[in-house]
Amino acid sequence: MIEAEFEQWKQDAEPALQSKLEELHYMGYESVTIEEIWQCVMAKAKKKKEEPRLHKLVGLILSLTVNDVMNWLTIKAYTEESTPLL
């Protein structure tokens, strides 16, 4: 997967990311950022073997649940905590 292409898609998917951010903030999760939502979506997209298209990424963004995001953030926190700092 081409990282530059994903960065362009991030700009194109900004309205969907903003919408999901507002939804999470409305539900009381004010500490979540657009970058964290994007990283969560990228993690889900990279698990698939095929290269995703923009409309599929937007669909992933809009279908994210609070549980998806919170689970991803928790796992990320544990994995970052367990890696030794060199």
Characterise the protein shown here.
- The chain is mostly helical and 86 residues long.
- It has helices at residues 3-12, 14-26, 34-47, 54-63, 66-82.
- The protein has one domain.
- The chain is 74% helix and 0% strand.
- It starts with a helix and ends with a helix.
- The mean pLDDT is 87.
Rg, alpha carbons? 13 Å
End-to-end separation: 29 Å
Q: Any low-confidence stretches, pLDDT <50, length ≥5? A: none
**Biggest beta-sheet profile:** none
Global geometry: globular
Mean pLDDT: 87
How many DSSP H or I helices? Answer: 5
Beta-strand percentage range: under 5%
Overall tally of structural domains: 1
Structural category: mainly alpha
Total beta-strand segments: 0
Into which percent range does the helicity of residues fall?
A: over 70%
Order of helices and strands: HHHHH
Q: Short summary of the structure?
A:
This protein has 86 residues and is mostly helical. It contains five helices and no strands. The protein is globular.
Protein topology:
Layout: H1 3-12, H2 14-26, H3 34-47, H4 54-63, H5 66-82
Offer a few descriptive terms.
single chain, 86 residues, mainly alpha, 74% helix, globular
